[in-house]
Amino acid sequence: MMEWAGLVLDALLILVVGIGIWQAMRLIAQLRDLRSGRVEMEKFVREFNTAVIRAEAGIKSLRAAARESGDDLEKLVEKAVMVRDELNFIVDSADNVAQRLTDKVSSVLKAEPVRDVRDTPPIAAKTVTATEAKKAETPKAEPVQQPSSKAEKELLQALQKLR
Is the pTM of this model over 0.70? Predict the structure, then answer.
């Protein structure tokens, strides 16, 4: 009986050692998978780091481009404001000239009675001397307002050069 008990204990011991060997083999396989996963993880971290560096460089270049575009846009806006001011001055000047012309025309029309051309005989043409024609052509000098903006000054200078 002792022999049987020794054999049973030996078989039990062999079984426990076999289970230990099997568990050790499983553990070795898991460690191998973990090491390969670690290598893949290091590769991923390196690639991710490279992508982050490229993204930072892209952001810096975008900021620089946005800054340049903003500067260009600001210059364009300044030019547009100057052109707007000049156009406003031109429109105001044109309105003043149109108003003066309207006033002159209405005063001339009020001074001359309207005649019906069909009812009146033809009138002999009056000869006008050169000095009378020049007097009629040159308008009376009106007081000139001093320009208030740079655009007005430049426009007045340009108009004086044309005369």
Answer: no
